[in-house]
Automatic annotation (TrEMBL), chains A, B:
Transiently phosphorylated on a His residue during the reaction cycle. Phosphorylation strongly increases the affinity for substrates and increases the rate of nicotinate D-ribonucleotide production. Dephosphorylation regenerates the low-affinity form of the enzyme, leading to product release. InterPro entries: Aldolase_TIM, N/Namide_PRibTrfase, NAPRTase_C, NAPRTase_N, Nic_PRibTrfase-Fam, Nic_PRibTrfase_pncB, Nicotinate_pribotase-like_C. It catalyses: 5-phospho-alpha-D-ribose 1-diphosphate + nicotinate + ATP + H2O = nicotinate beta-D-ribonucleotide + ADP + phosphate + diphosphate. This is Nicotinate phosphoribosyltransferase. Its EC number is 6.3.4.21. It comes from Aequorivita ciconiae. One of its GO terms (molecular function) is nicotinate phosphoribosyltransferase activity. Residues 351-454 form the Nicotinate phosphoribosyltransferase C-terminal domain. Keywords: Glycosyltransferase, Ligase, Phosphoprotein, Pyridine nucleotide biosynthesis, Transferase.
Amino acid sequence: MLNITAAYTDLYQLTMAQVYFKTKPDGTAIFDYYFRRIPFKGGYAIFTGLKNVLEILENLEFSDSDIAYLETHNFEPSFLEYLKKFRFQGSVYSSMEGDVVFPNRPILQVEANIIEAQIVETLLLNLLNFQTLVATKASRIRHSAFNNILLDMGLRRAHATGGYYATRAAFIGGFDSTSNVKAAEDFDIPCSGTMAHSFIQSYGDELEAFRDFARIRPINCVLLVDTYNTLKSGLPNAITVAHEMESRGDRLFGVRLDSGDLAYLAKKTRQLLNDANLEYVKIVASNQLDEYVINSLKEQGAPIDVYGVGTELVTGKPDASLDGVYKLSEYNGDPRIKLSENILKISLPSKKQVFRMLDENGMFYGADAIALASEGAINKMMHPFDRTKNLDLTRFQHEPLLKKVMESGKRLLPIQSTAEIAEYSKSRLTLLPPEYKRFQNPHIYKVGLSPNLKEERDKLIDAHKF
Amino acid sequence: MLNITAAYTDLYQLTMAQVYFKTKPDGTAIFDYYFRRIPFKGGYAIFTGLKNVLEILENLEFSDSDIAYLETHNFEPSFLEYLKKFRFQGSVYSSMEGDVVFPNRPILQVEANIIEAQIVETLLLNLLNFQTLVATKASRIRHSAFNNILLDMGLRRAHATGGYYATRAAFIGGFDSTSNVKAAEDFDIPCSGTMAHSFIQSYGDELEAFRDFARIRPINCVLLVDTYNTLKSGLPNAITVAHEMESRGDRLFGVRLDSGDLAYLAKKTRQLLNDANLEYVKIVASNQLDEYVINSLKEQGAPIDVYGVGTELVTGKPDASLDGVYKLSEYNGDPRIKLSENILKISLPSKKQVFRMLDENGMFYGADAIALASEGAINKMMHPFDRTKNLDLTRFQHEPLLKKVMESGKRLLPIQSTAEIAEYSKSRLTLLPPEYKRFQNPHIYKVGLSPNLKEERDKLIDAHKF
């Protein structure tokens, strides 16, 4: 079984590390983590995965079997000795987990010995990219579902053990509970579930299956009504059992629709339940749901109370990945840049701070300004490439977003529960105006540079121009 | 960190299990694992993940902390006592890992106490769906790349620790090596890598960076040439270093293109390398590659020797999931069925065997016939729903595909290395005619039912009809 050790990396990190080890073992580097494109054609993303990353960094080392394995890969003995003692001893500056974030600004910066900073790159990208993707998807689904209950049930379609982290990210992004027992246990997330078709099939007789289930698991009991025929069999049987439960002082929590036309079936179901004086029985729906299907169900007035979402959530469809990168921005105090034929892919040099602009009501105005970390207050931000565009910042409150969360390899942040992170995320999202949250052509949140940072970047571009 | 225990499941498995425990603790169930739709609009899939599943099943139990957690979820003490002693003691019948498989036929069958069979469902689906998806994607990329070298470098964009299994599946599907050190170590897969832009950026001077790297890591040395300008800087510097290596008796393995128009740059690069008498230096290309991009590069005559593939491979884009399901087909010896308004979703009852038809040359004819396990030879197969279609099977060799791979919770299969599984997969794929492998409208492989199985299924459909 997988144990995340320092060998959870790409081989080239170690190849490069050996060269650093032989030529400049004491170099200090700053790397920026950021992404370039908001997933799902949306207007924002939810930064997720920080706590896991810091926890792993604090304890990261190569196991004995990692070292034995690397001995077979042409590494020098002195470098292998170094790896045996390897610990991450750097500093990390980061946005808070759960915050609303935007492209092309550092979300996290690592400041460390270049060997250490390089070895942890893969791990950081792997955990942050995926969880940020899923939390962002979850946030969109939450947006479409308003106050309805959202249940993550995707483990069976998740990317193997990636599903464990998907559940965590889904909760931070706004889901209420999960079917994933292990993740619920480890991350302290509410756990819930209904029943499967196999349960009813094993009885053959649907009514009997419902009766046994309701008798033995009366709390939060949800009956799955589409094994044979939703309206002609499942629902009449569920109504019978609901009345039997009432006679015992219990209450059926809900019925679950898992196939067919959910809008039509939900309306028919609500009517049949109400006709049977079961107004309190909730309707749970599942089957390839995402934010667009839920939107459509809402538009049609489908009286659904609980949505179970699986595949689309835990795989972050249709994008399935976030394009987060980790770029060197400073080496031994000197600013560094990566050019590209694509102007949008040119990196930003130097250690930086990001300020979020808040309006007079404390709401996000819609602009993050990236400055050199050495700058104090800034009063103007420039468009990264369009010389004609800039924004006066003097009328805003400036919230610094990057905080030191790890120093000398030790966490500085108080350990938060998953629920606390989710709560923080919700509070931040509340500050984002609605035009950034809509699905169709959301408003574009501005990310700009301080005049000093822009000047430094442009100088480096010129120095490397051909 | 995640430890896969029996709590790696959906809560409803345990809820149902408690009801089984109270009402029919000795029931025996057969469940079928199969998928309904071939991913990527392709003509076949590569079944992967079996070894991991069997290894986990053999050692599966609830940890003490799992039990403590479940105590807070309204489970009865007697059932929790049962869970403490839980072990999977069932049998598993399966296609061999790496085999070419098709939709709507059992790929794996579990025969076990119904509680055990139910609890392991999520785990099986989670590991088999994802690895089969990625191995299938890898197989398609292999098809497009012919005999070129294929390198998996997707860990940073993989779904967190799911990337560990993605690497394994990619290798079984036809990749040559991976950048993922941990997966390479644990699954015994060749590991390789190049260098990152950060390495060159840390030097500032590209030529000096190349020199140090080539001197310290001369074996399989690949220089990344696009940090500043591929043709005007990276390549001339790489050529200088290649000649310096020659003077020391070393040889540059390759240069890597990671941006820009790969077809154009590869041609220019080949020409410049050849003009410098460096015909042996290989061209490695990466940047958002998939089977279609590689196809197109081939069509344009791009002289690329090695393809590095990341995101599209490890996330199984654009599908990002395989729709594999696990359906009850028999309970205590009685056949069971799940109906659906969608005729294609109706399940197949009873314990079954699947026969693959081989032609006179031992090639796959293009038909798998599903029969009752109790049947001996079958001489005809029927289309699942179209009464007008059937196929005479008397002229074929019949290869039984489901083998008993686990009995009483113990593995029966000899333990194979990942390389052996990959080799088997390749040998099986060789037997599949090319018309099933093409990307555009591949030929549809027939999956049919024995007359007896069809009769049994239809009887059950009639019995449950409304």
